[in-house]
TrEMBL record:
<dbReference type="GO" id="GO:0007018">
    <property type="term" value="P:microtubule-based movement"/>
</dbReference>
<feature type="compositionally biased region" description="Basic and acidic residues">
    <location>
        <begin position="447"/>
        <end position="464"/>
    </location>
</feature>
<dbReference type="InterPro" id="IPR027417">
    <property type="entry name" value="P-loop_NTPase"/>
</dbReference>
<dbReference type="InterPro" id="IPR036961">
    <property type="entry name" value="Kinesin_motor_dom_sf"/>
</dbReference>
<keyword id="KW-0547">Nucleotide-binding</keyword>
<dbReference type="GO" id="GO:0003777">
    <property type="term" value="F:microtubule motor activity"/>
</dbReference>
<keyword id="KW-0067">ATP-binding</keyword>
<protein>
    <recommendedName>
        <fullName>Kinesin motor domain-containing protein</fullName>
    </recommendedName>
</protein>
<dbReference type="InterPro" id="IPR001752">
    <property type="entry name" value="Kinesin_motor_dom"/>
</dbReference>
<dbReference type="GO" id="GO:0008017">
    <property type="term" value="F:microtubule binding"/>
</dbReference>
<dbReference type="Pfam" id="PF00225">
    <property type="entry name" value="Kinesin"/>
</dbReference>
<feature type="compositionally biased region" description="Polar residues">
    <location>
        <begin position="465"/>
        <end position="476"/>
    </location>
</feature>
<dbReference type="GO" id="GO:0005524">
    <property type="term" value="F:ATP binding"/>
</dbReference>
<feature type="region of interest" description="Disordered">
    <location>
        <begin position="447"/>
        <end position="476"/>
    </location>
</feature>
<feature type="domain" description="Kinesin motor">
    <location>
        <begin position="8"/>
        <end position="314"/>
    </location>
</feature>
Amino acid sequence: MEPMRLEEMAVRVGVLITHSADGRDNERVIIQEECKTVDYSGEKDTRISFSFDTVVTQENAQQRLFPELLQPIAGLMSTGCHRNVLVGGGSRSGKETILGSQGIAQQLVTGLFSEMTKGSDGEWFSTVSFIQFFPDDSAVDLLNSERRSLKPTAHLILGILVDGLCEIVIETAEEALGLYEKGRETLRINGGNLHSRCSSVFSVKIERSLHSDGAHDRQYCRSSLRLFDLAGGARKGDLNGVSPLVKVLELVESGATPGNRLLPLLLKDSLAGGCNTVLLYCIQPQGLVDEETPHALALAQRVRGLVTHVAPGHCGKWSPQAAARELREQIQDLRTKMVTQAECEEGDTRRLEELIRALQGVKDQDWEKRRQQSKELKEKIKQYPVRCAVVRMPSHTTDQQGGTERRTHLQEQLREEMEAHLREGKVSVEDSQRRLARIQQLREGLREEEHRLTETDRESDQSKHGINQGESGTAQLSEIEVEYTKALDRRKRLMEEHHTLIQEELAKMERDLGIEKADGLEGELFRLGRERQVLVFQMEALRREKLEAETDLEAQHLRHVQRFRSVREESLQVFRVFRQVFEEQGEVVEGRYRTLLLEAIQDAVYLSAQNQQLQTDNKELRRALAELKDALSVRGDPQEGAAVPLSRRQ
């Protein structure tokens, strides 16, 4: 078999520039859409030019992005190639609008299904999946409420597979877009306050049956489209976290492996594997203090220099029957080799395990089996919103941890900026304005973060207390009702048993009196004796019923006492929580006033230093003015001019 010829394909990159509302960024960023370049003016009037495949603005993004950058992807899906669309940018860069319901997702999916239904002459099978990635690289399946762990595996034939990921079978573009919107809503719920720092990947996989031309094994053509939403900034010191694209670029350039981390593995496969990849980076320049824009432009240009390797004519084509037969032959040969050897080598055992897992993966690609799994999953999705509310509770801890880290980072940056500002002293007006704007921005960010953390802690405490109180109260009430019902049934059964026994004794007494038929005193004594036995039996039954009722009453009294104590403790706990919240609010207000006082002191120190500097400058100016007057007077009087140097030398 001759080696497969690989064709190099460059990663296409487009840039979306979203201008700020005040328009202060227009002076730094110059867009030349016809030349497809962006010029950025940095400090000291240095201008850097960046070239891309497409440069658009927010006004013409919808009209130009899909025809120029994305439409070729949908057109090549029928050939069996794998396509990736990476969308990066900060939270305010316009990325959410591009990825919204009327953005590029709708255009890609609609164009994909239009090409498939128009150009396909055989059966086809399509599935979708949606994965969310948290800042710590943990992954969650957005279309499955069971929250199974996701683990990437490298298949010998199918490439990268994700164990535990559910794929839902779809037939129309509307179904795919509906699942896309449901997944994005679930992502916002799961992420909580960190949803803007969470990345995601939405995948559409399509298999199309090919004409066999009399061959025994049926051929299929596999295609896929993956839409990445990459959160974070292009700068490593960004407050919202660094984009995973930066980390993966370092791995690609250094040749390192991402290990078992799913998102870096998928991104590296997109940028250096056998795929056709497009990057759309959204940028919003920030005006005076803008550290993100130059890093974002440089990052996008670095990606534009990457090259993937695709095998034309062979991409995506495979036969499940032939693949399974080949794997079985390899397994049989390896087993024969291991049996004939005296000792099994560790490499052979690992290879056998890998082949068996690959064979199982090929079997799992059966269309009917996947349809059945998808049908069961769709039934579970109907109850998905209810389960999402339950899963949402643990996210408070993650939000608090991320918020605490961000607050600490902001405090460190503010302290460093203040120290640098006081240490530098006299600087130019532009540098001073830039420094003060940066300090003010950090102060506002710190205030917002402290306010958000306070609100999050308060909501968490109230929700936890309310849930615990509701659960304990419901449990105690249900337990009391159950015990009361059991006692009532027990006494009722006891009364019925006693009534039955008394009726039997009365019937027996009537029979005995009928048999004896004694007259006179003897008959009267016999009748009284039998009645006495029945009365004693009735008294014993009543005594037992009374004892049982007293026992139940005492137990009920104890339960009510315990319930009363529990309610009292819960009420006291509620008052304690209210008191704690009140004290915390007081501490927060006091902290704000202390912070305000500290800022006022810092401003006073700064103004005092500036005042001293101005006084020193004023003295120097006066001294220079006096010297200038002396020089002018020397020129006017020659004798004084000759005497002045002598006096200066003395």
